[in-house]
Amino acid sequence: MSSGARVVSAYAKQSDKTLPLTGWKILPNITNGLTVSTELTNSEMLSGGRIGKAGMVTSATVQGDIETEMMFGAYDDLLAGAFWNDWSGETPDTLSIGTTKHQFAISKDFTDINVNHAFLGCVVSSFGLTVDTSSLIKMKFGMTGIGYQESKTESFAKTPTPTPDTVKASGLSIGEIKVDGTKLDVCVESFSLDIDNQTEVQKCLGDNIYGGNVLAMIANISGSMTIAYSQKAHEIITNQLTGQTLSLEVPIKFGDSQYVIKIPKFQVSGEIPSPSGTDLVTVDVNYTVVDESPILEKHTA
Question: What InterPro entries does the entry give (predicted)?
């Protein structure tokens, strides 16, 4: 019998296909959905009877979502993985979409029953950030890996460094939202950002069952905002008639520090609201990032 409260996750940067022995850090999370699944290929040989032959394991998949609450600095390694790039190291520190692959080994330990899992060669295949008025800001890292180990004796995460439980953020942490460089003087009820790196696992003859490499294709970056319907909201939505691009800036404050999401160019789509007589009228603005990479700025106090 195992309790979900006793599951501990950790991660370490991985430079090759071997399990890291050092560099492990505790990975705070709401849920760690990483798992391994296999594919059985059945034999078509006839045996003279009506019972089929046993199948053979011919491939396996390592994937799953890690959901977290946003904390300042706690997930910078995974954020770099989501953007497939390195932090600039400048002031402010910035991330943009790139081609640098970050691989991680991620452990998932059921400590009360001593069942321990390690998922190897994991990359961030997708990323999502959601903000609304009634909950903490959440992030979701969709992981894809190319290796797996298990143990019933000890954890694969050797002496992991604790991650400080720093201040979290909510809808109240959002600063001045700007569209085309001008403050958006309209009530914003929710905001989301999604990055799909369109990763593909490359499998070759003679490789292990998980595949030998993970490659990223064109990044699809999109999101949405729910805003109060107004003349300004109408102006934003009508840009879908011409394909005109807009820019967006969303600050997320953590005391004197902050992240700032900057989207230089995006195109919009949406529908005219159809409210009932008792509704607050809002409009869902869907956006797609085009031409230029979004920028994530990190301002440290």
Answer: Phage_tube_2 (IPR044000)
